Amino acid sequence: MSWKITAYADRATIEHVLVAHEDAFDWDPEIVISGSEIAEDKPDDWQLEAWLGHKPGKTETEALAALFPGEVPAFEIEELPETDWLVSSQQDLEPIRAGAFHVHTPEHPALDEGGIFDFTIPASQAFGTGQHATTAGCLTMLTHMKQRGVVVRSCADIGTGTGLLAFAALRLWPSALAIASDIDAVCPAVVEANARTNGIAMGEGNGELIMTVAAGMDHPLLHARGPYDLVLANILAGPLVELAPDFADALVPGGHLVLAGLLETQEPAVRRACRLAGLRLAGRMVNGDWSILWLRKRRRWRAS
């Protein structure tokens, strides 16, 4: 990505833009956007950043402008040096502790502490190093579920990215059958490399992970390996709403679903879709602006 567009506004405005972007199903996938606060001591001052692989023109700026609820701020457009910005932004990430897990890049040492699972996740082209609030929240939620006595014999991690959440599930339930999938074709190589680094066995047996490329639940291998005791999906709110019936169909009665990637403001829509699919809320947590949901499939359910 060699060009960036930046706009500055208050937090509420930028959050509105992020939600509008989620709902824009005709959005150009080559335009990647994010919102963040500018400084910790100014929590209401936010910036919107959009990255493109080409010089933006009128079409791109008008698409961004249409996301704003009122007056559109000025856009700053700059050309960036040829750099892998995802890898570059992650190289100096500090380790995190989330639930029973310690996650760090190779530049930081492992944590030698009893009862803590340590993962080395390098900066990569895939999402999910553990630093994002949604990934860290899922690690915390999985730990909570294990402490509550949840038993997992089979699990699926949809939109796995680096493979981290699938790895975490196998550490908590080491004899489970596990499958991970992602729509991004770069992910299998990333997951396999991370599995080797962290001692996760790749394969089809108990305690092993198999990886595939798929859009949502649409893959013969995902269907063949189900139904599941646990499905994980740390993706985006729009797809979570669309996939709620598929997630429910993929679970055993009483099975568990962990959802993340949704802003707290998007939670009602996701929960409604899940409720209509026969899933009930078992727990939730909020990490920053992001909601992490634990749902269970009703043992007896008849759609209305």
Q: What is the overall silhouette?
A: globular
- Largest sheet, if any? 7 strands, mixed
Mean pLDDT: 88
Helix tally?
9
Gap between N and C termini, in Å? 47 Å
Radius of gyration: 20 Å
The amount of beta strand, in percent, is 25-35%
Order of neighbouring strands in the sheet with most strands: 10-9-8-11-12-14-13
Give the beta-strand count: 14
Q: What features would you describe in this structure?
A:
The structure is a single chain. This protein is α/β, with parallel strands linked by helices. 31% of the residues lie in helices and 31% in strands. The chain is built from nine helices and 14 strands. It has helices spanning 11-23, 58-65, 85-90, 133-147, 164-172, 187-198, 220-225, 237-250, 267-276; strands spanning 3-10, 32-39, 42-52, 76-79, 96-98, 101-104, 117-120, 154-158, 177-182, 209-213, 228-234, 251-263, 279-287, 290-297. The strands form three sheets. A seven-stranded mixed sheet has the order 10-9-8-11-12-14-13, sandwiched between helices. A four-stranded antiparallel sheet has the order 2-3-1-4, covered by helices on one side. The longest helix has 15 residues, at 133-147.
Characteristic terms for this protein:
304 residues, alpha/beta, seven-stranded mixed sheet, four-stranded antiparallel sheet, globular
Give me a quick take on this structure.
The chain has a 7-stranded mixed beta sheet, sandwiched between helices. It has a 4-stranded antiparallel beta sheet with strand order 2-3-1-4, with helices on one face. A 3-stranded mixed beta sheet has the order 5-6-7.
